[in-house]
Design goal:
mainly beta; 2 helices; about 300 residues; two-stranded antiparallel sheet; 13-stranded antiparallel beta sheet; single chain
Length: about 300
């Protein structure tokens, strides 16, 4: 992985990324539908970012496993036309939710916005104006309305229900790929979460968690042009303030991958896996989780 990242950073610094974008323009997108020998049309290309998902699997945490029901709506911007100068790659997730017996893990909305510029310049308002080449594009990642933990507000001593009020990151994308679903980003951001639990007397005792632009994240994600394989890695660390414990470090690392196995009536059936490990002051130790399941998707384009 390190040689790949170093190669892309070198290409971006040398200004080779716009040439790669031009080469991408010349390669037509693979067909979504083909016709078999019997004259019947069927779908062979699927967009992981434009679909309605229903899935089921198991969630492994510690020594226990639980069944999971997964739901979500993915939407994204269309591929830019040939000859584009500025384009926004937009990936939206609406109500991505995993439900387990007595537990929820989801959000109201997650969005990734990458503004891609073919020239990639920073203009200084001098006389005359000066344009400096940038080795990256810029963007924004946001998440609103996160819920993670037990479905009911727990009693004192039990793991808290974490409610994410807002999370935002300013991003630099060093891959600069015009292909949707491909990025290599470094982000600096902030977030505000609330840990919900009850005190010894049964009253609500919230723990306000604030990272005021003290979070640093690195993420890479890639997709095949036909959408049959996709995967990514993400790490995030932050120094946050807790209304219960004061300032504390927190970190999280996660990896995900998805492979489409077959299609049933032109609806892809895929195998999806996601692993995460997290450390924070409100946890007794690093918490690891593994989700493995099957997804059936309804393509929206």
């Amino acid at each position: 992985m390190k040689p790949v990242l170093a190669l892309w950073l070198a290409l971006a610094a040398s200004g080779a990324a716009p040439d790669a974008a031009a080469a991408e323009d010349r390669v037509p997108a693979p067909p979504s539908w083909i016709t078999g020998r019997d004259g019947r049309r069927f779908r062979v290309r699927f967009d992981p970012g434009e679909r309605l998902i229903v899935g089921a699997g198991t969630d492994q945490a510690g020594a226990g496993a639980a069944p999971v029901l997964e739901l979500g709506l993915h939407l994204r911007a269309q591929r830019p036309e040939a000859g584009w100068d500025v384009h926004w790659n937009r990936d939206h997730q609406v109500l991505p939710v995993r439900l387990m017996p007595g537990r929820i893990d989801g959000a109201l909305y997650r969005g990734l916005y990458l503004r891609q510029s073919r020239q990639g310049t920073l203009t200084l308002p001098l006389s005359p104006p000066v344009a400096l080449s940038l080795p990256f594009d810029v963007g924004l990642r946001t998440e609103v309305g996160q819920l993670a933990g037990p479905l009911e507000i727990p009693n004192a001593g039990a793991p808290r229900l974490r409610a994410g009020v807002v999370h935002g990151e300013a991003l630099a994308d060093f891959w600069r790929s015009p292909q949707p679903g491909c990025w290599l980003v470094v982000g600096v951001g902030g977030r505000y979460d609330v840990g919900l639990a009850r005190g010894a007397a049964g009253a609500l005792a919230p723990d306000h968690l604030v990272a005021p632009l003290t979070a640093l994240a690195v993420a890479v994600h890639a997709e095949q042009r036909d959408g049959l394989l996709a995967g990514g890695l993400r790490t995030e660390s932050a120094y946050r303030w807790s209304s219960v414990r004061g300032w504390e470090p927190t970190w999280r690392a996660e990896a995900e991958g998805e492979a489409t196995l077959l299609a049933i009536n032109d609806r892809p059936l895929s195998l999806y896996a996601r692993a995460s490990v997290e450390g924070a002051g409100d946890l007794p130790g690093p918490e690891a989780r593994l989700f493995v399941g099957l997804r059936i998707s309804q393509p929206l384009r």
